[in-house]
Amino acid sequence: MPTALEQLRAQIVSCRACPRLVEWRETVGRTKRAAFRDDTYWARPVPGFGDPAASILLLGLAPAAHGGNRTGRVFTGDRSGDWLFAALHRAGLANQATSRQADDGLTLTGAYVTAAVRCAPPDNKPTPEERDRCLPYLAAELDLLTRVRVVVVLGGFAYAALWRLLADTGVDLPRARPRFAHGLEVRTGRATILCCYHPSQQNTFTGRLTEPMLDAVLTRARQLAGRPVTPAPGSRPSRTRPR
Predict the structure, then answer these.
(1) Is 235 contained in some domain?
(2) Which tens digit of pLDDT belongs to each residue from 120-178?
(3) 55 contacts 150 by C-beta, under 8 angstroms
(4) What's the CATH code of the domain at 106?
(5) Which of 16, 114, 186, 209 would be a feasible disulfide site paired with 48, CB 3.0-4.6 Å?
């Protein structure tokens, strides 16, 4: 019998609640990018991925049109994922540093990666209504991932979405939402929120987010989650400059 998490993934994958997003993700899947013209695009909602016993949840914005929307796995097949999974590997949370395809052998230990919106949006900008339609899936994931103690929000959109969800579900929160800032920690009745700039090219190419900055966030996440900070065997130290 499928587990509750597998059943939730099946529900996510079959969702067609947002007509604009359905049209966009499927159009991208048909037209493709020249570099991926021989690929069969996933072009469906992208479920979360990782360890069902995770103590650390990483929350992004939405799948990239030619990343997760192509490969079917969150943060897989694009530059943002290159940064994120390399950092997870350095932190000892992933068995390998790359995430190219959904069947490439990547596994996570103690971590689970998901997104506030499950379909690739035009211009990478979901509407508030689309975000809110998708939030019940995140709520269900949090209900099932009972060991999560830290949520690393990747960017301001993910932070606002998580805050809205926790408020709507009656979680004890500070009276006023602190302004998003890299490294900000907010303790809530469900988990500690830990803020991180999104590993988008806009941030990594400009140096707004560097590998040491991302590594420091994951080290802190492990500390907050009560996991020993032990880098993966053979992983290289982060560089001081963005690639």
Answers:
(1) no
(2) 999 999 999 999 999 999 999 999 999 999 999 999 999 999 999 999 999 999 999 99
(3) yes
(4) 3.40.470.10
(5) 114
CB 61 within 8 A of CB 69: no
Q: Which residue has the tokens 């695009």?
A: 41
Contact 193, 159 (CB under 8 A): yes
Rounded to the nearest 5°, which phi and psi values hold at 150? -135, 135
Handedness of CA 208, 162, 221, 108 (dihedral sign): negative
Residue that is written with structure tokens 């000892």 in the block:
92
Task: Report how far apart, in Å, the C-alpha atoms of 211 and of each of 30, 41, 81, 125 are.
Answer: 35, 30, 13, 25
What amino acid occupies position 170?
G
Is 198 within a domain?
Answer: yes
**Range(s) of the domain holding residue 60:** 4-225
pTM for this structure?
0.93
**Residue whose entry in the numeric block shows the structure tokens 């016993």:** 53
Residue 237 included in any domain: no
DSSP letter assigned to residue 122: G
